[in-house]
Amino acid sequence: MTSGITLQALRRHRWAFLGPAATQTIAATVISAAIMAARSMDTAPLTKPQRHSLISPDVGAMNGVFIGSSVYMSILLVGVAMNLVISRQTRDIALLRAVGATPARIRRSAALQAAIVALPSSALGYGLGTLAGNAWISALRSHDILPPQVTFHPDLLALPIVAGIELATSVLGSLVAAIRPARVRPARALTDSATGRPRIGVFRTLLGVLLLAGGVVLAGLISKLDAKNAGDAAFFVMLALCVGVGLLGPILLRAIVGLARPLATALGGSGTATIAADNIAVLSRPLSGALVPLVLAIGFAIVKVSMHTTAAHITGTADAATDVWLDYAGTSVYCVFAASAALNTLITVMAGRRRALAVTRLAGADRPRILGIVGVEAAIVLGTALALAIGVGMVTLAPMLHAQFHTWLPYMPPSYLFAGILLTGVVVVGGMLVPAALLSRRRPIEVVMAVE
């Protein structure tokens, strides 16, 4: 029965699985590239001094950091992506529960769905990882970080390692995502499916508040540590804050909509802005899945970039070019990873709204009006993500700056701020407005008749 449920879910919601598949592919790419790059460095014909130079600087540990970070980000982001996929199966799961399917069977089906998607994603990620690993080794050589003797060599042994990691992280993420849908009563699940606005549990709310409060308290404690220990502990501050934001995402989105609704009413009454605010309130739970990777990407970039720019601003001396390049290269990898997960989440949400958009058009809204509504929705999501990410970044960054430079305020060049806002806007617009433009090209009556 489990396999039948799984195959039916894969067929019925096949487009929704593109998000988890893309996230798993990116994770497999980073992990396989790091494994093969490390293997290439280990087997390179180097002298003892050259070998020591690979171990002592950051490049010697960077591959391990890439692998470890990719593993925990895969658990977190695949969990977010699978949560969205499973939320689209709420009605199906409720009907299955009503006819006798047990919560354990539902959880096993969710795990099997993630595993089926993980296997081809791992293979594709391994292929892309060979290209990425070769590019990484070449970049390190071009910056004189690696000697010319180090060349990239693909390693087939990396494939089963990557597949094993992806299977484990994907299954774990899907099991976490399936906890609530598998336990909720069928009648309540059907109600949530009909309204499109499932309730946020008390446990989830309390855990989110606890993580946010714990992150702030930990940030205050590490401000008294030395610079190195403060930097190491800051990672846990950001992780706690990002997970807390994810858990409280629906509540935060609704709160921001509540604050923005009076302004929308003053500007347009019951017009575009007000409709967009109401839509965000209804879609707060699925859209909150995009907040975790967005906040993670922006917050991580704020911390990494601000440490270098603030150091140069205070001391008047820029950090070593090699260290800056390595730090920014690693930051770019994490940001691309997280931004891709956010983009996939937003696209999946918009794809699930194609019938609702078509019904709105049948009710009298023309295509420009639809795009205007989605544009305002994108602006609300963008503003929320930026505000939360700046808060997370500042709470994480402040104790590190105090420990190293005895200041609480970072310095960020305006051009860097503009670039960050622009890139975040590209992700949000690409995930919301572009799909809406493509979905609204089809005649609305055809969409309504085609979608069950």
Automatic annotation (TrEMBL):
Main subcellular localisation: membrane
Keywords: Cell membrane, Membrane, Transmembrane, Transmembrane helix
Record's subcellular location: Cell membrane
Pfam families for the chain: FtsX
Keyword Transmembrane: yes
Sequence intervals crossing the membrane: 21-41, 61-86, 114-137, 157-179, 200-222, 234-253, 290-308, 328-349, 370-396, 416-439
Domain ABC3 transporter permease C-terminal: 65-183, 337-441
Membrane topology label: Multi-pass membrane protein
PANTHER family xref list: INNER MEMBRANE PROTEIN, MEMBRANE COMPONENT OF PREDICTED ABC SUPERFAMILY METABOLITE UPTAKE TRANSPORTER
Name used for this protein in its record: ABC3 transporter permease C-terminal domain-containing protein
